Amino acid sequence: MPSGRTPEQFTKRSLVAVSHAIERAALAEAEDGPLVVLALFQRLPYFAREREVYRRIAGRAAVTVVAMVGGPPPDLPDGAYGVTLDEAEALAREWTVVALSPRFGATLVAHDRAEVAPAPTLESGRLFEGRWGFRRDEALHEAIRLREQLAERLPAAARTALDEAIARVRDIPAGPGEPRAEAALRLLARRGDRNNQPVEPAEAMLDETGLTRWSGADGVTASGTLPVALVGLRVEAPPGSPERFGRRGVAREGHAVLTAITAVLRPVDRALRVTENEFQLLLPGLDEPAALEVVRRLHDAIGALARSYPFMAYTVHAAVGVTTRRPLPTADLRAAVDWAVRKGVPVAGLPTETADAVAAPAH
User: Fold this and answer.
1) How many domains does the chain have?
2) Would residue 104 be called left, alpha or beta, if left means φ above 0 and alpha means ψ between -120 and 50 degrees?
3) What domain of life does the native source organism fall in (predicted)?
4) Taking a C-beta distance cutoff of 8 angstroms, is the pair 22, 106 a contact?
5) Are 299 and 346 in contact (CB under 8 A)?
6) What is the pLDDT of residues 145-194, one digit of tens each?
7) Cis peptide preceding 329, ω within 30 of 0
8) DSSP-based three-state secondary structure for 268
9) DSSP string, 146-178
10) Is 1 part of any domain?
11) 200 belongs to a structural domain
């Protein structure tokens, strides 16, 4: 990093706040020469939320470039240039906003860690690592970097305007007072972070409404970013349990099963109770081996209940998959559990987003 700054960790919530600050600065009235704005949005839904802001920016800037996987929308604001990112390239995991003029510069460069922190929603807790600042020469460096990486995908007119703006910036030294202004901004940002209420411990077990809210299905989210491991679990008591052991006893053992399930959850995880004996675990940032380890722990914990309740030998069937789809494919997960029960398979796997459930080794 040319600034020598130590990378910071951002949640999605704080990252959006910095993005908005830079965009607001780009919209401010100022006679400071040609303005360049470049932004990487990862996926279209994140840009769609800011479309009106970028329409206004494009009306003021000499060059406005927005890039995302899958390409920009067909109704991109006039004056903005869209760039399609390949899902496999490094820029696809970057959330970046750069504003540059001869007398001003602001930069946010953040890389998606594909992890989450505890937060009210899955989206707001996404973690990024990067840096931000209001230094013109840092913004110049980032504008040059992005120009080099995106040049072949920009039309000639955009490249020419970008090159002219960058050349103009190079002709004028940065203002010596930038560090003072940035120090004040960072103090305000830290105080804002302190004023945010800490995240209260959330209920790990959700209902359908809670799942919709937490997963972002009724807000702004996008497929292809954060992986979430899904574990479907059906826990079946011996036939005739209520008649043999009494409903109070069955309820007591059922509570023990519920406790065993929630015990494997991290603070960022959630679970959905689908039916009386079927559950879905939502484990952000885990890969399939880690999810299978969770299933192994669940098998051990539920199997161990027989020591306390010797007549309650539960049968457990599970399905495991990792998805970046939004909304989360919970219906597919339930179908995979049904498949495991029909086939008598302890653990069914979903090796790809589109494949049918196939047997996976039990652990």
Assistant:
1) 2
2) beta
3) Bacteria
4) yes
5) yes
6) 999 999 999 999 999 999 999 999 998 888 887 888 888 888 887 776 65
7) no
8) coil
9) HHHHHGGGS-HHHHHHHHHHHHHHHTSPPPTTH
10) no
11) no
